[in-house]
Amino acid sequence: MANLSEFEQFATRVKSLANQPVYHDEFVYPGLIVKQAGRERIQITPPLSEAVQFLQYNPVKVTTDELDLPPVTVQVARNAIHLEPLGKSMCLVTIPGNAKMQVIDGVVGWEAAIQLMSTDPDAVADYQVLLSLVFEGED
Questions:
Q1: Of 12, 50, 129, 132, whose CB count within 10 A is highest?
Q2: Would you state the pLDDT for residue 66?
Q3: Bridge-partner residues for 133, per DSSP?
Q4: CA-CA distance, 3 to 137, in Å (whole number)?
Q5: Contact predicate 52/124, CB 8 Å
Q6: What is the pLDDT of residues 36-55, one digit of tens each?
Q7: Buried b / exposed e across 1-30, counting CB within 10 Å, b at 16+?
Q8: Continuous segment of H or E residues that includes residue 103
Q9: What is the pLDDT of residue 23?
Q10: 7-11, 74-78, 100-104: which has the minimum mean pLDDT?
Q11: Cα pseudo-dihedral 108, 82, 126, 70, rounded to 10
């Protein structure tokens, strides 16, 4: 069991960060830092409607019947986002509104989600997408 004072410190840190102002041109999500084989990945789950604003991809032909939104792997420059470590492999991820990330895996599911969102936005209104952020030059 974790040391209670350590947990209290963590909770206080999260509360203070959660109360920071978020600007209209930024997206802030809780994240999980995964270190594996000398590389670092950040896992976040933004709403689909927000993720489309900063993800770029090369279109592929799919039908909306294929909508099974697996984790999407995107590549981003390390200095393009801000990570605020919270301890215990957790962080807050701030993505500036002008940031662009390239989808490098999961394009088929992503394309189907985009198509469905454009034809029937209510069908995906509450969808979230699991993004795995990898840093440029670390793949």
A1: 129
A2: 53
A3: 42, 74
A4: 37
A5: no
A6: 878 888 999 988 888 888 88
A7: eeeeeeeeeeeebbeeeeeeeeeeeebbbe
A8: strand 101-105
A9: 57
A10: 7-11
A11: 30
State the Cα–Cα distance between residues 67 and 113, nearest whole angstrom: 6
Per-residue pLDDT, averaged over 92-97, amounts to 91
What pLDDT sits at residue 118? 84
Quote the pLDDT of residue 43.
93
| DSSP character at residue 47 | B
Which residue shows structure tokens 């701030």? 94
Token pair belonging to 25: 């041109």
- 108-to-66, 68, 100, 111 alpha-carbon distances in Å: 8, 9, 19, 5
What distance in Å separates the CA atoms of residue 42 and residue 83, rounded to the nearest whole number?
9
Tell me the C-alpha distance between 83 and 19, whole Å: 16
For residue 47, list its beta bridge partners: 128
Residue with tokens 């390390």: 78
User: CB under 8 Å to 16, separation ≥6 — which residues?
Assistant: none
Tell me the C-alpha distance between 121 and 85, whole Å: 34
Express as a percent the part of the chain with pLDDT over 70: 78
- The first and second tokens of residue 133, run together, are 């952020």
